[in-house]
Design goal:
By secondary structure, the chain is an alpha/beta fold. It contains 5 helices and 12 strands. It has a single domain, classed as Metallo-dependent phosphatases (Purple Acid Phosphatase, chain A, domain 2, 4-Layer Sandwich), CATH 3.60.21.10. It is 24% helix and 27% strand. The radius of gyration is 16 Å and the shape is globular.
């Protein structure tokens, strides 16, 4: 069994970041003892160097290994450079226990809200997914921008400019899980054999309607994938339960 916590959209800054909510989230996630934490972008609010410095102090509170991709807010004000200096590579691949692969993509564009993967990164993604298929690995792709429109988010904007091409690659390779953030609204779609999950905001005050700060938890066994929505300091919901793709 593999347990993964998925957090997103912290927006660390002086105004929109709720430190109390973040501390509560850290306590809850550490108690879960996940195998890893995946952070799908917007760690900072403006991409300022000082925000990234502050972020590192907060992220060190998590006890599990944490892997992050940048969001559009992180790419502002030369933040795309600062991300690499302070957080790490903007695109990456990791394999756990030889049979689970997570691929992180940088969907951000400097000083723009819209997202883009781009041809070089897209070709790299296809190569990595080919290897996953050959090795029969469980595959997860993490990026900030959503590849499918999210309900309850109003007029659609700032989606990936190359969403159609990326979505085709993800579904034809039968990626097991696609994780994103950006819209601050939890959601799950299943498209063909691919489950597409959008996380809400972990600790930002930028919330829509009555939606609460939250994070996702994935319980992956040999037979199934359970997806839980955990509201900070509140209820936990079984968001979806799916059989594993056949090898």
């Amino acid at each position: 069994m593999t347990l993964i916590a998925h957090i997103s959209d912290l927006h660390i800054c002086e105004t929109d970041f709720d430190e109390d909510i973040f501390i509560q989230a850290v306590t809850e996630i550490n108690q879960l003892q996940p195998d890893m934490i995946i952070l799908t972008g917007d760690i900072t609010n403006c991409g300022y160097y000082v925000e990234f410095q502050q972020a590192t102090r907060y992220l060190e509170m998590f006890e599990a290994p944490l892997f992050a991709v940048p969001g559009n807010h992180d790419a502002r004000n030369l933040g795309y450079q600062t991300f690499e200096e302070i957080i790490g590579e903007r695109s990456w691949k990791l394999t756990m226990d030889g049979d689970l692969t997570v691929i992180g993509l940088d969907s951000s564009s400097p000083d723009e809200s819209r997202g883009n993967i781009g041809n070089p990164q897209h070709m790299w993604l296809e190569h990595q997914l080919d290897e996953c298929a050959i090795n029969e690995n469980f595959s997860i792709v993490a990026l900030h921008h959503h590849v499918i429109p999210i309900p309850q988010t109003g007029r659609e904007r700032n989606v990936l400019s190359d969403a159609g091409d990326i979505l085709k690659t993800l579904t034809t390779h039968e990626v097991d899980l696609v994780l994103s953030g950006h819209k601050h609204v939890p959601n799950v779609w299943k498209l063909n054999n691919t489950i597409v999950v959008n996380a809400g905001s972990l600790c930002s005050k930028k919330l829509r309607g009555k939606i609460k700060n939250s994070y996702m938890v994935y319980n992956i066994t040999d037979d199934e994938i359970e997806i839980f929505l955990n509201n900070i300091g509140g209820e936990k919901f079984l968001f979806g339960k799916y059989a594993r793709n056949e090898l």
